[in-house]
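Please, structure for the following, as tokens.
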Amino acid sequence: MTTEPEKNTTLLRTAYQAVESGDLDAAEQMLTEGFIANVLGSPAPLVGRDVWRLGTQAMKDAFPDLKIKVQDIFGVGDKVTVLLRFEGTHRGAFQQIEATGRQVSFGSIEVYRIEGDKIAEEWVAPDLISLMQQISPAADH
């Protein structure tokens, strides 16, 4: 018998696999219609699947070979917490920095709330400082 936390962690793993493989349509279908993204630095939560799609597409455009490695994942009730490592090659513009061809690796701490069998809300804290340091022109030596 599968517990609710097990079902929820499996849902997240499946969503990450879909994003990694480039199947954003499948991943988007795993979100509720009123999906809420709580993003560091944003004055208010962002609402809607389209917001998620824009952010995820920007990452895939900049890092088309993006690999998502789940380092730890656990669920309690309707929440799932994930420690991730992202790795990829900077092949497209990211936040106004043109492609450098550099390999990048950065972590993220993410918490999700599940409603039924869909992802309803996320709180994400990627290490963007590390990522930007890796792709910034100042990183050329």
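Residues 52 and 109 are 17 Å apart (CA to CA). The mean pLDDT is 93.
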